[in-house]
Amino acid sequence: MSTLILWPGRPAARLPQFNWASILSIGWRTIRRQFARRRQREAWRAIADDPHLLRDLGFTREQALSEASKPFWR
């Protein structure tokens, strides 16, 4: 159900009602994504010292370290 808001001189507008379950779900998804990014960055850091793996993936050591140095929120 929406809340009806009346402003003088403007038509009525309905505001959406928030569902707490969906808000919490979005929050958990964000946290899981950040942990996944952190694990990926740690993996890049570990791979950076192995030239064979880097060559297989098609990356240079500098690219791997650059990717590893990014913060988890990017």
Classify the helix fraction into a percent range.
55-70%
H/E series, N to C?
EEHHH
Give the mean pLDDT: 82
Number of domains: 1
DSSP helical segment count: 3
Radius of gyration: 23 Å
The class by helix and strand makeup works out as: mainly alpha
Shape: elongated
Question: What characterizes the major β-sheet?
Answer: 2 strands, antiparallel
Q: What is the total tally of β strands?
A: 2
Main sheet: strand order? 1-2
- How far apart the termini lie comes to 36 Å
**What amount of the residues lies in strands?**
5-15%
Low-confidence stretches: none
Give a brief description.
The protein is mostly helical and 74 residues long.
Any descriptors?
two-stranded antiparallel ribbon; 74 residues; 58% helix; mainly alpha; 2 strands
List the helices and strands and how they pair.
Blueprint: E1 3-5, E2 13-15, H1 20-47, H2 51-57, H3 61-68
Helix pairs in contact: 1-3
Can you describe this structure?
The protein is mostly helical and 74 residues long. The chain has one domain (20-74). It has helices at residues 20-47, 51-57, 61-68; strands spanning 3-5, 13-15. A two-stranded antiparallel sheet has the order 1-2. A hairpin with a 7-residue loop joins strand 1 and strand 2. Helix 1 (20-47) runs antiparallel to helix 3. It is elongated and about 70 Å long. The two termini are 36 Å apart. The model has no long low-confidence stretch (mean pLDDT 82).
